[in-house]
Structures are given as structure tokens and as C-alpha cells.
Specification:
Radius of gyration: 28 Å
Helix content: 25-40%
CATH class of the largest domain: Alpha Beta
Number of helices: 14
Largest sheet: 6 strands, mixed
Shape: elongated
CATH topology of the largest domain: Peptide Methionine Sulfoxide Reductase, Chain A
Number of domains: 2
CATH architecture of the largest domain: 2-Layer Sandwich
Strand order of the largest sheet: 7-6-1-3-2-8
Distance between the termini: 94 Å
Number of strands: 17
């Protein structure tokens, strides 16, 4: 026993001496021993202001949205970084069990999904912005869960609280499907909002409170690798516009055919009112114009150049007496300019290539559809019914016009 003990002590001492020599000669090696790499952009770059807790009364001033996208730690963390988001709360939604616990939900017997309640400033972001952002931060093709997490409680869902929200969500999914980003179909579900229960306190702000554990989980799950592969740093418009509008995307549309005739030609082609509105920034009478009461499906183009401008799907009754839209077909197709006429400052809207006056845009539109009202003059537009769009060369825009 004595000899064995001496041998053991000798080996231990030799190891200590050898380790000391190695450390003395290679101190930099210690610094190279790291935990698995942490994707900084996804995990650590949080806006501290977005973690300030607000009261329910304060939050009631903001818009709300509900999403499920797999592990709510990740969904919460991603949406906290979206422009305009004020607060994100992790919880459970859509099931039949009241006040469920985490165990209830992960048992796959409650009908709930891990979800988030998002409060956002509608002056900065729209519901549509958040839907698009959410779709670009999940795997929209996975019907059985998300990444590591499997089962109904981890399925991706957009919960809608109004018909407008349903239409927005379904259109975004159609756009993503049409863009052919994936080899598999987009399977995100769009379901009516029924309930939301906040999750246990230890789930709230998990990425911030448990950063190392969260980042190790997130990276190993493959979520960030997937998002980088399919979305990268692209905007939604860059991702889907070329496919949704086909050749008529901002980068593929041949605008050479949208030219502005000479002033003499315009005076011959246009009526007196059409010329006054488009060339002299005039305004037609409210209610007494061609398209204020038009509800047919189709597309509205510049009466002078033929540039595609607005879809009937984005038209609504504003009660102002002029045709009103929540948005143009593509913001790149119009130009907005400051207008200081009539002793006030307004935002004028003109066609991009024809440079014709169309109307003005105001911040008093439907909040649930973005909050804008593009108030146009019928005299500046030409309406093309949906059934005539292909024949007249606008077939690439059919997907943007609901057949109603």
C-alpha cells in the first residue's frame, strides 16, 4: 500500500507540474476554450427599452396580435426585435383548458399552442407588418411543430381577431407560397382568436434572463441556420415581390411602355377635368365621380400612362366621396411629395413614371389595415375589370385582386 500510495502521489505531482509548465508557456490556449458559439444578433442584441414592463392600462393604448411559432422563448425574443413592438408576453392560446400550466400544454391534451401576445405601436407598424415578420422567423413549412419541438402545442398559427386580420394573414401566406421560397408548401394555420393565458413567470423574457441557456438551445435547434438559409437579411418585399407580381415586379417591370405623351397630346386625349386633375393638381367633386362607388374586382391604373396603381382588394368606403385605398399595389409604383397648397401641409401622391397627380394620402385610414387613406381622384384613374386584366396586359397582377 505504501509503494502504491507513493506512486499515485508521484503521478499526481508530475501532472500538476506538467500542467503548470503548459499553462506558463501557452496562456492563450485557456482563452480559446469556449462554450458553443452564441449567435449574437439573434440572442443578445435586445433593445432594453422593449423590456420595460407596462401596466395593462398603458398597453390598452396599443394594437394587439397573437402568434404561435414553436418554442415561445424564441417567438417572444424574435418579435421583441420587430419595429414598433412595445411588449411581448409568452403564454398559451387556442385551447379548451382554462388557466393551463406548462405541463397541461406540453401534455398535448389541452389544445393550446405556445403563443405570444404582442402589443405594438400602430403609428410605427401595422398588423400586416407583424404577420410578415412572424412568417420570416419560423419554418412555415413544418406542420408538426418547430425545429426541436414537436406536437400540436408547437405548431405555427396566426390567430386573427377580425375579418380584416384573417384576410391579411391569408394573403401573406398566399404571397409566401407564390414566391416559391421553399420546395414544400406553406402550412401555417390561420385560426380565430379565442383565448390567451400568460405563461408562468419564469418563461417571461427567458432569452434575456437566461441568455446562455437560451442561446445554446436556439443554436442547437437549427432555427437560426434555417432562417439564414431561406430569409437571410432580405425584406419581405424583396422576398416575395418578384414572384407575386411576376414580370411586373419593381425590378422586372418594363416601364418603357408607361410613357407620358406630350402636353398637346394630353389636351387632345383627356377631358377638361382629367387634364386639370392630372396636370394641374386639381381635385374633382366628392361623390360625383366615376369610382367612388365602384365595388367591382379589378385594378386601377394611371389614366395617362397606364401604370398599375391600386387593387380593388385594397379599396374601402371612406365616406369622403372619393375612391379610397389602404395602400398602393407597391409603394415603389407611386411617389409621395409634400404639398403646402391651400394653407396646409398634405402629402401628394403622383405616379412614378408618368409623374401625374393622383390625389393625397392621409393618416386617418382603417387602423387594422395600416391606418392610411390613399384618397384618389377618379379622373386620374382608369379601372380595368378583373376579367379584362390579362387581355389588357395586367395578368401578372391577378393574384392581388380578390375575385368577389
Amino acid at each position: 500500500m505504501g509503494i502504491s500510495w507513493k506512486i499515485a502521489v508521484g503521478i499526481l505531482g508530475f501532472g500538476i507540474v506538467l500542467g503548470g509548465v503548459w499553462y506558463a508557456r501557452y496562456p492563450g490556449k485557456i482563452a480559446e476554450i469556449r462554450i458553443p458559439s452564441i449567435p449574437k444578433e439573434s440572442c443578445l442584441e435586445h433593445n432594453a427599452d422593449k423590456h420595460m414592463k407596462k401596466t395593462r392600462t398603458e398597453l390598452d393604448r396599443y394594437g394587439r396580435a397573437y402568434f404561435a411559432g414553436g418554442c415561445f422563448w424564441c417567438t417572444e425574443s424574435d418579435l421583441q426585435k420587430a419595429p414598433g413592438v412595445i411588449e411581448v408576453i409568452s403564454g398559451y392560446a387556442g385551447g379548451h383548458v382554462a388557466n393551463p400550466t406548462y405541463a397541461d400544454v406540453t401534455s398535448e391534451k389541452s389544445g393550446h399552442r405556445e403563443a405570444v401576445e404582442v402589443y405594438f405601436d400602430e403609428k410605427i407598424a401595422t398588423y400586416e407588418d407583424l404577420v410578415r415578420y412572424h412568417l420570416m422567423h419560423i419554418d412555415p413549412t413544418d406542420a408538426g411543430g418547430q425545429f426541436y419541438d414537436r406536437g400540436e402545442s408547437y405548431q405555427s398559427v396566426i390567430f386573427f381577431r377580425s375579418e380584416e386580420e384573417r384576410l391579411i394573414a391569408e394573403q401573406a401566406i398566399r404571397d409566401l407560397e407564390t414566391a416559391k421560397v421553399f420546395s414544400k408548401p406553406v402550412v401555417v394555420r390561420v385560426l380565430p382568436y379565442t383565448n390567451f393565458y400568460a405563461a408562468e413567470e419564469y418563461h417571461q423574457d427567458y432569452a434575456e434572463e437566461n441568455t446562455l441557456k437560451y442561446c445554446a438551445y436556439r443554436e442547437s435547434s437549427g432555427r437560426d441556420a434555417f432562417l439564414k438559409k431561406y430569409f437571410g437579411s432580405k425584406s419581405w418585399e424583396a422576398l416575395v415581390s418578384a414572384s407575386v407580381t411576376g414580370k411586373n415586379s419593381p425590378t422586372h417591370l418594363d416601364f418603357s411602355r408607361y410613357v407620358k405623351p406630350s402636353r398637346e397630346e394630353l389636351k387632345e386625349r383627356l377631358t377638361g377635368l382629367e387634364y386639370e386633375v392630372t396636370q394641374e393638381e386639381g381635385t374633382e367633386k366628392p361623390f360625383d365621380n366615376a369610382y367612388n362607388g365602384n365595388h367591382a374586382p379589378g385594378i386601377y391604373v394611371d389614366i395617362v400612362s397606364g401604370e398599375p396603381l391600386f387593387s380593388s382588394s385594397d379599396k374601402y368606403e371612406s365616406g369622403t366621396g372619393w375612391p379610397s385605398f389602404v395602400k398602393p399595389i407597391n409603394k415603389d409604383f407611386v411617389v409621395e411629395k409634400e404639398d403646402k397648397n391651400f394653407f396646409s401641409t398634405r402629402t401628394e401622391v403622383r405616379s412614378k413614371y408618368g409623374d401625374n397627380h393622383l390625389g393625397h394620402v392621409f393618416p386617418d385610414g382603417p387602423k387594422e389595415r395600416g391606418g392610411l387613406r390613399y384618397c384618389m381622384n377618379s379622373a386620374a384613374l382608369r379601372f380595368i375589370p378583373r376579367e379584362s386584366m390579362s387581355q389588357e396586359g395586367y395578368g401578372d397582377f391577378l393574384s392581388l385582386v380578390d375575385a368577389r
